[in-house]
UniProtKB/TrEMBL annotation:
The keyword Iron does not apply. It comes from Nonomuraea aridisoli. Keywords: DNA-binding, Signal. This is Rrf2 family transcriptional regulator. GO terms for molecular function: DNA binding; DNA-binding transcription factor activity. One of its GO terms (cellular component) is cytosol.
Length: 124
C-alpha cells in the first residue's frame, strides 16, 4: 500500500483536530503539521465535503471533527484522499496463486485501518 503525501497530510490534520478537541484555524493546522498552507486548505475542503469535518468562518470559527474521534477510522480518511483501491488485474498462470495472498493482505490492511480510530492514535 502506498500512502500519498495528500493522505499523510489529511491524517495529520485530522489528528490535530482530534487532539485539539475544539475548533482550529487552517493556519494552526498547517503550521502544526508542516503542511503547505494552500495544500492544507484544499485538504480541509476535501475532508469537509466528505462530511468528516465541519467549519465556520470568522475569528471564532475554524475546523472541527464532524463526529467524535472514536467514530472516525483511519480508513475513512484514506478513502476520501485515495479513493477505493482498484481490483488488480488477473495474474498469469504460474503467479495465479498470488492473487489469494494479495486479497488476504488487502483484507488485513482494510481491517486494521477500519478498526483504528483517531481517538486510538491520540491516546498513544
Amino acid at each position: 500500500m502506498r500512502i500519498s503525501a495528500r493522505t499523510q497530510y489529511a491524517l495529520g490534520a485530522m489528528l490535530a483536530l482530534a487532539a485539539a478537541g475544539g475548533p482550529l484555524h487552517a493556519e494552526q493546522i498547517a503550521v502544526s503539521q508542516d503542511i503547505p498552507r494552500r495544500f492544507c486548505d484544499n485538504i480541509l475542503l476535501q475532508l469537509r465535503r466528505a462530511g468528516l469535518i465541519q467549519s465556520q468562518r470568522g475569528p471564532d470559527g475554524g475546523y472541527w471533527l464532524a463526529r467524535p474521534a472514536a467514530e472516525i477510522a483511519l480508513a475513512d480518511v484514506i478513502r476520501v484522499t485515495e479513493g477505493m483501491e482498484p481490483v488488480g488485474r488477473p495474474l498469469p498462470k504460474a503467479a495465479a496463486p498470488l492473487a489469494g495472498i494479495w486479497a488476504e493482505l488487502r483484507a488485513h490492511q482494510d481491517r486494521l485501518l477500519s478498526q483504528t480510530t483517531l481517538a486510538d492514535l491520540v491516546a498513544r
